[in-house]
Amino acid sequence: MQSTSSSANSRAVENRAAGFWEQKTLGEMTAAEWESLCDGCGRCCLLKVEDEDTGDIYLTGLACALLDLNSCRCRDYPNRQTKVPDCISLTPDAVAELGWLPPTCAYRRVAEGRGLAWWHPLVSGDPETVHTAGISVRGRALSETAYRVARIEDFIVSDWPEMTDEMTEETTGEAEQRE
Fold it and tell me: What is the pLDDT of residues 126-136, one digit of tens each?
């Protein structure tokens, strides 16, 4: 029986060799490939505020009640849109339209032709790298259920850490060269 680390590394090597995200457009991916692109950062599950005057969208530090704040995954993914009617279902078309997707988002990166970053689980083979690299909401977000939100604007996060180009631009090929 392989260790978890060994299994994760094997998956990373297999996925790097396959590189489906480099060979296909988002629209050409299978359902399994599409779902595997999610890096588990949880940023799309943060509540957002839209400025009625400008249309600008701001992230808050409050997460959807269904987001597990440790794993940064939905607690009830198959039923999320029934339980949370305004939950966004990402599609290839939606990725192009949702300007609030962070520049670190794998769907956005692939759509823009930037490939996957070194910390993406498909590249690293480890679902923890998205957290250790500081990309995820782990340790930064609060559940919307834990607070009575009179003014959601009070929870806007103006200093949400964004990765610099140097930190996010390393792609699959560059990671392979390091090894």
Answer: 999 999 999 99
